[in-house]
Amino acid sequence: MDKKEKLKAFLKSRNAVAGYVLAGWLALWGLIFVVGNILESLLLFILLYNLVYPVATVFCCYAFSKKNGIVWFMPVAMAVISVVLYVATELVKFALPNAIVMTIVTVFFGTGFGNIMHGNNDKKRK
């Protein structure tokens, strides 16, 4: 693989990471905003944050890694963004710091499991 092909693959995976991360975070934080600020339901907030959020994070990382394999900046970007959003928003008042740990664990779990399936797909193609 020459340098042009490596650069092209890197840019493709970088754009895919950006797409997956932005879609997931916009949907999640939009739901958290609606539930927390508009509906103001504590039960819905707990359900969203403790059930929907981890499942969505695992699925997002799984789908990306199954298609593209492990890219080192996907889990790092999602972990850093979760820390920044946790500190920058009102989530500090409601959620425990364990939310950051939950994000990191679900990101690495989804990425690892997706990479396993990515390897299985390569074996089936041969």
Layout of helices and strands:
Layout: H1 3-39, H2 42-68, H3 73-88, H4 91-94, H5 98-125
Helix pairs in contact: 1-2, 1-3, 2-5, 3-5
Overall morphology: elongated
Number of β-strand runs:
0
User: What does the main sheet amount to?
Assistant: none
Question: Residue share in helices?
Answer: over 70%
Verbal overview:
This protein has five helices and no strands. The protein is an all-alpha fold. It has one domain (12-125). The protein is elongated, with a radius of gyration of 16 Å. The two termini are 20 Å apart.
Quick description:
With 126 residues, this protein is mostly helical. The protein has five helices and no strands. The chain has helices spanning 3-39, 42-68, 73-88, 91-94, 98-125.
Which keywords apply here?
126 residues; mainly alpha
